[in-house]
Amino acid sequence: MRLQTKVAIITGGANGIGKKTVERFLEEGSKVVFTDLNADDGTKALQEFQQKFSDIHFIQQNVQSESDWAKVVSETIEKFGRIDVLFNNAGIYKSKSIEETTLEEWNLLMGVNVTGVFLGMKQVIPIMKNQRSGSIINASSLAGLRGSAYHILYGASKGAVRMMTKDIAAEVAPYSIRVNSTHPGVIQTSMGDDVAKGIGVTTEQIGKGVPLKRTGTPDDIANAVVFLASDDSTYITGTEIVIDGGLNI
Ligand SMILES: NC(=O)c1ccc[n+]([C@@H]2O[C@H](COP(=O)([O-])OP(=O)(O)OC[C@H]3O[C@@H](n4cnc5c(N)ncnc54)[C@H](O)[C@@H]3O)[C@@H](O)[C@H]2O)c1
């Protein structure tokens, strides 16, 4: 088991990539606190996980809220005593032309995708500094590396996540804390469906255009996150892991 003795916080863990990552972490022996804005989906996922695992805890959280973050960190310490891994996974997607994009939409995307990641790192790093170890993984996207039409909101937010990752990696490296970002292509989740709808195609059609001839699965991302969280990656920090079937070649 690659994550035995680790304690992890995973945001947006009730669905999609986050939910699969919670499951993979539990299989690898990690204790997990997962959070989500959607309490119903979170409670349902918790019940599923509890059929096989006991070191699992769910907290409803809006990642934009500093007081919610304080609660997540204090409950994790109370329950499991330390924090080894933070996967800042929660995120939202919107595709729109710049003329149609409202300031409210801009603030919402930045609030969840950027402020959420900032607050998570800010709250967890003091604990990791005391431990003199930790691994933070921030969910960016291929959209954080490449431009595309109608992606002003999502692309700007995920580009920010990529650079925040590098800045903080440089800042906390003296404490043996590693910070990396993941950059998925199109992944089979409800968000992946929205991405396909936004460009007027199906995910199957997108898959045909991917060099590896398929869209990604939540497992494809979860496996990369397990690697970045584990001691198999102790010399990797400040980098972007692209998981896209070759779209960015
Ligand atoms: N699916 C893709 O194709 C794809 C591609 C690249 C990057 N990503 C990124 O991967 C991450 C996960 O995406 P997914 O496809 O699993 O999405 P998803 O929509 O399936 O799941 C996201 C989860 O985040 C939760 N969430 C939303 N806002 C929240 C908030 N304010 N606070 C707490 N939780 C919140 C949702 O309730 C949901 O359970 C996101 O950051 C996304 O941008 C996804």
Mean pLDDT: 97
What is the CATH level 1 assignment?
A: Alpha Beta
Regions with little confidence, pLDDT below 50 for 5+ residues: none
Structural class: alpha/beta
Number of domains: 1
| CATH architecture term | 3-Layer(aba) Sandwich
The share of residues in helices is 40-55%
Describe this structure in words.
With 249 residues, the protein is an alpha/beta fold. The chain has a single domain (7-186, 218-243), classed as NAD(P)-binding Rossmann-like Domain (Rossmann fold), CATH 3.40.50.720. 47% of the residues lie in helices and 15% in strands. Strands 3-2-1-4-5-6-7 form a 7-stranded parallel β-sheet, sandwiched between helices. β2 (31-36), α2 and β3 (56-60) form a beta-alpha-beta unit. α1 packs across α8 (218-229), α3 runs parallel beside α4 and α4 (103-131) packs parallel to α5 (152-172). The relative contact order is 0.15. The mean pLDDT is 97. Bound molecules: nicotinamide-adenine-dinucleotide (NAD). Nicotinamide-adenine-dinucleotide binds next to α1 and α6.
Descriptive keywords:
249 residues; alpha/beta; Rossmann fold; seven-stranded parallel sheet; globular; binds nicotinamide-adenine-dinucleotide
Brief characterization of the structure:
Helix content is 47%, strand content 15%. The chain is an alpha/beta fold and 249 residues long. The model has no long low-confidence stretch (mean pLDDT 97).
Question: How does the SSE layout of this entry go?
Answer:
Elements: E1 7-11, H1 16-27, E2 31-36, H2 39-50, E3 56-60, H3 66-80, E4 85-88, H4 103-131, E5 134-139, H5 152-172, E6 177-184, H6 190-198, H7 203-208, H8 218-229, E7 240-243
Helix pairs in contact: 1-8, 3-4, 4-5
The structure holds nicotinamide-adenine-dinucleotide.
The site of nicotinamide-adenine-dinucleotide has 31 residues, from helix 1 and helix 6.
